[in-house]
Backbone:
């Protein structure tokens, strides 16, 4: 098993209970492991929530993290994947002064080249949205920086695995337990 | 059986406890939990509340009760400091897998987050040390959440659950009905036994020439004592224990070869490094058991019978994991194992025991020096109780000595703080242990340091009259720390010497009969008198000041580096 530091995506299917985020993050805290990004959302199953957490750890570490996460009462199932095993994206928003959009031809080129889109244009500012890999949103950030970015924000990673996760089957098998 | 009643949340809490078969709880009242206490007053003929002298005592007492009775222990406290005082006991219960339900009062829901009087985020604080926790803000939630709390605390690998109830939810009225919880969608309490895993493990065990069983508390928690004994006797494999596994198999069983770990027996530790198949049953490879992990049993294939999937490969790689309640897995495994003659292997245990006897045990139990040893006190307790007492220990030298030399004929007889190592555990835990096993002798063996951490629980003993026998082994030192200072810090005894009060006078202040022994000739008689006395009794035994506990595996050393002196 690889003891090299690797970027892993941990996917957690869970109940949507107050405090569960705290309980999960405590598992990382206890082991002094930093969370690179964290996203929570609905999943494909009604009433089931999904966490996507990115960490840079060794494989034995990520295995133990997933075991401890799965052990939590409100967690249905947890998985870990390498970047190669998932399809993943992040979304970034860039807020720039509107006058640059018209005065700096280069900005329009950057937007076109990076397949970014303009979300809104107001008299004072306009907002660009770019969804993609980290290096792509980083590149656009560097390109726009000289124009004085008013605000920049990037979401946590969202990711789906290439292999099936079979949560419905797991939930069904859990139901058999409920007499 | 569901009953329809329009009652308050507070009354619902009491009715839920009764529905779960609870007749005894430990706690301490305060502002935010007063509605529940008001209902307790009305139900006092059905539900006995023991007022401890500190909330930490309530959790430890509930732990002691759970450990000897096998039932869920219940502790109640108010919000804020009441709740935070529970935390040490909850953390202890979490790491030692003790089923507890802790109920805390909380400020009214509309005040949450306002820094109200005695408000504290007990859900946030208790999260890392609970199996599950939940904050109730509406009375309607109470029956379902209480049922879930008990189910989660006792099922699978047991553990503590904390339920925080806002004061307004305690006052509000609703239509109450109770349904026991039989499952939680996202939680699989016990993994389904996989026959293929059993067969693989059986093949490995059958192929072994030098097999060794290491058992832990899982045998007791899984009520697997009979299945375990059948397994040990059928296989004829030597079996050794972790301190929380102690008493699951009687001490004088010929296949019981003693204790593993830092102050465990010589043979079990050294032969862990020689066995070819290590059969771990309901234990978790704590660092106090394994010593240096990368040198632990490297030559052995590891079979691991375990209920908690998170324990598999956590510290030690399991070549043959068997996931299930160990009662179930042992019952499946035993018929597949061939009985073996292991005479040569068994002789190694006897040979190493003889070495340990000569270097350590004889001096501990039959000392020729003037000062009393902790070991000889244990011998007298064994004799006077016919090895049938519940022994409750605290943490430190006396704990290691008690675990090494106490003898047992029954399971659930050893109550100690293993994983967390909580000084102050024993006195309150003994109160609960006695209430959980009222017909048995319960002897709390405590050091002079730990005793003074929860000494106020003498008040609880006096008020309830609970027949706890307290033995303080007094060396006027924090002995284990002093031992380390002697061995690893050139005898720089920083803050380990204790100037102690007159313990006998203190016990007498609580109207507890008390005696102090300083001479060997008085020891046996004093122990007999203690056990013969109705109700509580306090016995101080002044022991040698600077005795050390051996064998010892220094921290970070491998088991092979075990020292006899």
Residues:
């Amino acid at each position: 098993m690889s003891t090299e530091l690797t970027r892993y995506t941990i996917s957690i299917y869970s109940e949507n209970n107050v405090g569960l985020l705290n309980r999960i993050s405590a598992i990382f805290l206890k082991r002094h492991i930093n969370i690179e990004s964290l996203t929570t959302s609905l999943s494909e199953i009604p009433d089931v929530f999904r966490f996507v957490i990115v960490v840079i750890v060794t494989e034995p570490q990520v295995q133990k993290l997933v075991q401890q996460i799965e052990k939590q009462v409100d967690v249905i199932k947890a998985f870990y994947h390498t970047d190669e095993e998932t399809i993943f994206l992040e979304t970034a928003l860039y807020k720039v002064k509107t006058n640059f959009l018209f005065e700096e031809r280069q900005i329009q080129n950057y937007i076109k080249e990076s397949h970014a889109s303009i979300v809104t244009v107001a008299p004072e500012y306009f907002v660009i949205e770019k969804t993609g890999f980290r290096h792509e949103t980083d590149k656009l950030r560097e390109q726009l920086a000289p124009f004085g970015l008013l605000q920049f924000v990037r979401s946590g990673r969202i990711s789906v695995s290439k292999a099936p996760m079979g949560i419905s089957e797991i939930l069904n098998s859990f139901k058999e337990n409920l007499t | 059986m569901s009953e329809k009643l329009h009652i308050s949340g507070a009354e619902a809490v009491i009715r839920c406890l009764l529905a779960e078969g609870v007749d005894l709880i430990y706690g301490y009242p305060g502002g935010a939990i007063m509605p529940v206490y008001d209902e307790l007053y009305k139900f006092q003929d059905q539900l006995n509340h023991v007022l401890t002298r500190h909330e930490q005592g309530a959790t430890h007492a509930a732990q002691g009760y759970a450990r000897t009775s096998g039932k869920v222990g219940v502790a109640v406290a108010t919000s804020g400091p009441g709740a935070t005082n529970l935390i040490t006991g909850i953390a202890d219960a979490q790491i030692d897998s003790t089923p507890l339900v802790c109920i805390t009062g909380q400020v009214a829901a509309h005040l949450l987050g306002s820094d109200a009087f005695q408000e504290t985020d007990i859900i946030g604080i208790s999260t890392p040390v609970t199996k599950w926790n939940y904050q109730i803000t509406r009375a309607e939630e109470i029956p379902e959440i209480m049922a879930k709390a008990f189910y989660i605390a006792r099922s699978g690998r047991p553990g503590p659950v904390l339920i925080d109830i806002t004061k307004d939810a305690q006052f509000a009225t609703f239509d109450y009905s109770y349904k026991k919880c039989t499952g939680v969608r996202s939680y699989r309490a016990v993994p389904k036994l996989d026959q293929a895993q059993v067969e693989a493990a059986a093949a490995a065990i059958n192929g072994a020439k030098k097999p060794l069983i290491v058992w832990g508390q899982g045998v007791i928690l899984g009520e697997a004592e009979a299945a375990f004994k059948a397994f040990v006797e059928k296989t004829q494999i030597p079996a050794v224990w972790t301190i929380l596994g102690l008493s699951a198999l009687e001490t004088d069983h010929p296949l019981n070869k003693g204790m593993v770990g830092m102050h465990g027996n010589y043979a079990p530790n050294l032969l862990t490094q020689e066995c070819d198949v290590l059969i771990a049953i309901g234990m978790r490879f704590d660092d106090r058991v394994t010593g240096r992990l990368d040198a632990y049993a490297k030559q052995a294939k590891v079979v691991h019978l375990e209920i908690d999937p998170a324990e598999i490969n956590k510290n030690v790689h399991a070549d043959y994991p068997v996931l299930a309640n160990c009662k179930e897995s042992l019952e499946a495994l035993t018929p597949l194992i061939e009985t073996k003659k292991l005479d040569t292997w068994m002789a190694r245990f006897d040979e190493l025991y003889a070495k340990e006897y000569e270097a350590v045990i004889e001096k501990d139990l039959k000392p020729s020096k003037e000062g009393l040893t902790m070991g000889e006190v244990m011998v007298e307790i064994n004799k006077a109780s016919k090895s049938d007492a519940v022994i409750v220990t605290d943490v430190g030298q006396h704990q290691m000595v008690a675990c090494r030399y106490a003898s047992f004929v029954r399971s659930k007889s050893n109550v100690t703080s293993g994983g967390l190592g909580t000084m102050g555990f024993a006195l309150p835990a003994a109160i609960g242990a006695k209430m959980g096993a009222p017909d048995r002798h319960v002897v709390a063996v405590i050091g002079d340091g730990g005793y003074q951490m929860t000494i106020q629980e003498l008040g609880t003993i006096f008020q309830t009259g609970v027949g706890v026998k307290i033995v303080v082994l007094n060396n006027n030192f924090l002995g284990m720390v002093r031992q380390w200072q002697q061995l690893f810090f050139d005898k720089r005894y920083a803050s380990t010497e204790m100037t102690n009060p007159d313990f006998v006078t203190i016990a007498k202040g609580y109207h507890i009969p008390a005696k102090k022994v300083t001479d060997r000739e008085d020891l046996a008689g004093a122990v007999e008198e203690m056990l013969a006395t109705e109700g509580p009794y306090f016995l101080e035994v002044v022991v040698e000041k600077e005795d050390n506990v051996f064998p010892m595996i220094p921290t970070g050393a491998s088991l092979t580096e075990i020292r006899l002196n």
